[in-house]
Fold:
Amino acid sequence: MNLILVGPPGAGKGTQAAAIVAAIGVPHVSTGDIIREAIKRNTPLGREFKNYADAGLLVPDDLVNSLVTNRLACPDCDQGFLLDGYPRTLDQACALDFVLERRGRLVDHVLLIEVPDPVLIERITGRRTDPETGRIYHLRFDPPPESVAARLTQRADDTESVLARRLSEYHRSTDGMVPHYAQMNVLRRIDGVGSVDDVRRRTLDVVRAASAHSPVVAHAARAFS
Structure:
Protein backbone atom coordinates (compact mmCIF):
# COMPACT_ATOMS: atom_id res chain seq x y z
CA MET A 1 0.00 0.00 0.00
CA ASN A 2 1.43 3.38 -1.04
CA LEU A 3 0.66 6.05 1.56
CA ILE A 4 1.47 9.73 2.01
CA LEU A 5 1.33 11.42 5.42
CA VAL A 6 0.59 15.14 5.44
CA GLY A 7 0.21 17.56 8.33
CA PRO A 8 1.42 20.89 9.70
CA PRO A 9 4.40 21.31 12.04
CA GLY A 10 3.41 20.14 15.50
CA ALA A 11 0.72 17.75 14.26
CA GLY A 12 2.64 14.71 15.50
CA LYS A 13 3.40 13.17 12.10
CA GLY A 14 6.51 11.41 13.36
CA THR A 15 4.64 9.69 16.18
CA GLN A 16 1.78 8.62 13.93
CA ALA A 17 4.16 7.50 11.19
CA ALA A 18 5.81 5.10 13.63
CA ALA A 19 2.41 3.60 14.51
CA ILE A 20 1.43 3.20 10.86
CA VAL A 21 4.62 1.47 9.72
CA ALA A 22 4.50 -0.82 12.75
CA ALA A 23 0.90 -1.72 11.92
CA ILE A 24 1.17 -2.42 8.20
CA GLY A 25 4.85 -3.20 7.69
CA VAL A 26 5.85 -0.66 5.03
CA PRO A 27 9.02 1.47 5.22
CA HIS A 28 8.83 5.00 6.59
CA VAL A 29 10.31 7.21 3.88
CA SER A 30 11.09 10.55 5.51
CA THR A 31 12.66 13.08 3.17
CA GLY A 32 14.16 14.92 6.14
CA ASP A 33 15.92 11.76 7.31
CA ILE A 34 17.11 10.94 3.79
CA ILE A 35 18.52 14.44 3.28
CA ARG A 36 20.36 14.40 6.61
CA GLU A 37 21.79 10.95 5.84
CA ALA A 38 22.87 12.03 2.35
CA ILE A 39 24.66 15.08 3.80
CA LYS A 40 26.27 12.96 6.50
CA ARG A 41 27.52 10.41 3.93
CA ASN A 42 28.72 13.22 1.63
CA THR A 43 26.98 11.71 -1.41
CA PRO A 44 26.68 13.79 -4.62
CA LEU A 45 23.04 14.60 -3.78
CA GLY A 46 24.04 15.27 -0.17
CA ARG A 47 26.64 17.81 -1.28
CA GLU A 48 24.05 19.58 -3.41
CA PHE A 49 21.60 19.70 -0.51
CA LYS A 50 24.29 21.08 1.77
CA ASN A 51 25.19 23.82 -0.71
CA TYR A 52 21.59 25.05 -0.79
CA ALA A 53 21.21 24.74 2.99
CA ASP A 54 24.45 26.63 3.66
CA ALA A 55 23.31 29.40 1.32
CA GLY A 56 19.89 29.59 3.00
CA LEU A 57 18.15 28.74 -0.27
CA LEU A 58 15.20 26.47 -1.00
CA VAL A 59 16.13 23.15 -2.55
CA PRO A 60 14.80 22.93 -6.15
CA ASP A 61 11.96 20.50 -6.78
CA ASP A 62 13.94 18.47 -9.30
CA LEU A 63 16.59 17.68 -6.69
CA VAL A 64 14.02 16.58 -4.10
CA ASN A 65 12.13 14.61 -6.75
CA SER A 66 15.33 12.76 -7.70
CA LEU A 67 16.03 11.91 -4.09
CA VAL A 68 12.56 10.44 -3.55
CA THR A 69 12.59 8.62 -6.89
CA ASN A 70 15.86 6.91 -5.98
CA ARG A 71 14.55 5.93 -2.54
CA LEU A 72 11.29 4.48 -3.86
CA ALA A 73 13.28 2.35 -6.31
CA CYS A 74 14.82 0.43 -3.38
CA PRO A 75 13.59 -3.16 -2.98
CA ASP A 76 12.04 -2.53 0.47
CA CYS A 77 9.49 -0.20 -1.16
CA ASP A 78 8.27 -2.81 -3.64
CA GLN A 79 5.26 -3.70 -1.47
CA GLY A 80 4.48 -0.12 -0.42
CA PHE A 81 5.73 2.85 1.55
CA LEU A 82 4.73 5.70 3.84
CA LEU A 83 6.01 9.01 2.47
CA ASP A 84 6.52 11.69 5.13
CA GLY A 85 7.64 15.20 4.20
CA TYR A 86 7.00 14.74 0.49
CA PRO A 87 5.28 15.88 -1.61
CA ARG A 88 4.98 19.37 -0.18
CA THR A 89 3.63 21.14 -3.25
CA LEU A 90 1.33 20.46 -6.18
CA ASP A 91 4.30 20.30 -8.56
CA GLN A 92 5.96 17.65 -6.39
CA ALA A 93 2.69 15.71 -6.18
CA CYS A 94 2.40 15.67 -9.96
CA ALA A 95 6.02 14.56 -10.28
CA LEU A 96 5.35 11.70 -7.88
CA ASP A 97 2.23 10.68 -9.84
CA PHE A 98 4.35 10.52 -13.01
CA VAL A 99 7.10 8.42 -11.40
CA LEU A 100 4.62 5.95 -9.92
CA GLU A 101 2.58 5.67 -13.11
CA ARG A 102 5.72 4.78 -15.07
CA ARG A 103 6.12 1.85 -12.70
CA GLY A 104 2.48 0.82 -12.85
CA ARG A 105 1.74 2.12 -9.36
CA LEU A 106 -0.49 4.76 -7.79
CA VAL A 107 -0.86 6.66 -4.54
CA ASP A 108 -3.42 4.61 -2.61
CA HIS A 109 -4.19 6.99 0.26
CA VAL A 110 -3.12 10.42 1.51
CA LEU A 111 -3.50 10.73 5.28
CA LEU A 112 -4.04 14.39 6.22
CA ILE A 113 -3.72 15.13 9.95
CA GLU A 114 -5.65 18.34 10.63
CA VAL A 115 -4.99 20.55 13.64
CA PRO A 116 -6.16 24.20 13.98
CA ASP A 117 -3.34 26.74 14.02
CA PRO A 118 -4.11 28.03 17.56
CA VAL A 119 -3.75 24.49 18.93
CA LEU A 120 -0.45 24.02 17.10
CA ILE A 121 0.86 27.31 18.43
CA GLU A 122 -0.01 26.33 21.99
CA ARG A 123 1.58 22.90 21.56
CA ILE A 124 4.86 24.15 20.17
CA THR A 125 5.43 27.45 21.96
CA GLY A 126 4.86 25.76 25.32
CA ARG A 127 7.72 23.30 24.85
CA ARG A 128 10.79 23.68 27.06
CA THR A 129 13.98 21.59 27.23
CA ASP A 130 16.16 20.77 30.22
CA PRO A 131 19.71 21.34 28.89
CA GLU A 132 21.19 19.03 31.53
CA THR A 133 19.04 15.96 30.88
CA GLY A 134 17.53 16.62 27.44
CA ARG A 135 14.06 16.07 28.93
CA ILE A 136 11.30 18.00 27.12
CA TYR A 137 8.44 19.50 29.14
CA HIS A 138 5.36 21.48 28.22
CA LEU A 139 4.36 24.46 30.32
CA ARG A 140 0.69 23.44 30.27
CA PHE A 141 0.45 19.74 29.37
CA ASP A 142 3.58 18.42 31.12
CA PRO A 143 4.77 21.11 33.58
CA PRO A 144 8.34 20.86 34.88
CA PRO A 145 9.09 20.54 38.61
CA GLU A 146 10.09 23.76 40.32
CA SER A 147 13.60 22.42 40.88
CA VAL A 148 14.41 22.53 37.14
CA ALA A 149 12.06 25.24 35.85
CA ALA A 150 14.65 28.02 36.03
CA ARG A 151 17.17 26.28 33.78
CA LEU A 152 14.78 25.26 30.98
CA THR A 153 15.33 26.64 27.50
CA GLN A 154 13.14 27.18 24.46
CA ARG A 155 14.26 26.21 20.98
CA ALA A 156 14.73 29.18 18.66
CA ASP A 157 12.24 27.74 16.15
CA ASP A 158 9.59 27.14 18.83
CA THR A 159 8.72 30.81 19.11
CA GLU A 160 5.36 32.10 17.89
CA SER A 161 6.88 34.34 15.20
CA VAL A 162 8.89 31.51 13.65
CA LEU A 163 5.98 29.09 13.89
CA ALA A 164 3.64 31.60 12.23
CA ARG A 165 5.97 31.73 9.23
CA ARG A 166 6.23 27.93 9.08
CA LEU A 167 2.45 27.54 9.23
CA SER A 168 1.95 30.18 6.56
CA GLU A 169 4.36 28.33 4.27
CA TYR A 170 2.66 25.00 5.03
CA HIS A 171 -0.79 26.34 4.13
CA ARG A 172 0.54 27.99 0.97
CA SER A 173 2.15 24.79 -0.25
CA THR A 174 -0.70 22.43 0.62
CA ASP A 175 -3.54 24.63 -0.65
CA GLY A 176 -2.97 23.31 -4.16
CA MET A 177 -1.86 19.80 -3.26
CA VAL A 178 -4.78 18.79 -1.03
CA PRO A 179 -7.48 19.47 -3.67
CA HIS A 180 -5.38 17.47 -6.14
CA TYR A 181 -5.58 14.38 -3.95
CA ALA A 182 -9.20 15.04 -3.05
CA GLN A 183 -10.05 15.01 -6.76
CA MET A 184 -8.22 11.67 -7.06
CA ASN A 185 -10.44 10.38 -4.23
CA VAL A 186 -7.44 9.28 -2.13
CA LEU A 187 -7.54 12.00 0.55
CA ARG A 188 -8.34 10.77 4.09
CA ARG A 189 -8.79 13.46 6.74
CA ILE A 190 -7.82 12.73 10.36
CA ASP A 191 -8.69 14.87 13.39
CA GLY A 192 -5.32 15.57 15.03
CA VAL A 193 -6.69 17.23 18.19
CA GLY A 194 -6.49 15.22 21.40
CA SER A 195 -4.05 12.92 23.14
CA VAL A 196 -1.39 10.98 21.26
CA ASP A 197 -3.35 7.78 21.86
CA ASP A 198 -6.60 9.32 20.59
CA VAL A 199 -4.98 10.52 17.36
CA ARG A 200 -3.19 7.20 16.95
CA ARG A 201 -6.50 5.35 17.27
CA ARG A 202 -8.17 7.59 14.69
CA THR A 203 -5.21 7.25 12.33
CA LEU A 204 -5.18 3.46 12.49
CA ASP A 205 -8.96 3.40 12.08
CA VAL A 206 -8.53 5.29 8.81
CA VAL A 207 -5.68 3.01 7.70
CA ARG A 208 -7.76 -0.05 8.59
CA ALA A 209 -10.74 1.20 6.61
CA ALA A 210 -8.55 2.23 3.68
CA SER A 211 -6.86 -1.16 3.60
CA ALA A 212 -10.06 -3.23 3.87
CA HIS A 213 -9.36 -4.65 0.40
CA SER A 214 -6.08 -6.12 1.70
CA PRO A 215 -6.71 -8.86 4.31
CA VAL A 216 -3.03 -8.99 5.32
CA VAL A 217 -2.77 -5.25 5.92
CA ALA A 218 -6.15 -5.04 7.60
CA HIS A 219 -5.20 -7.88 9.98
CA ALA A 220 -1.91 -6.14 10.83
CA ALA A 221 -3.69 -2.84 11.54
CA ARG A 222 -6.20 -4.60 13.82
CA ALA A 223 -3.34 -6.02 15.85
CA PHE A 224 -2.28 -2.50 16.81
CA SER A 225 -5.76 -1.13 17.61
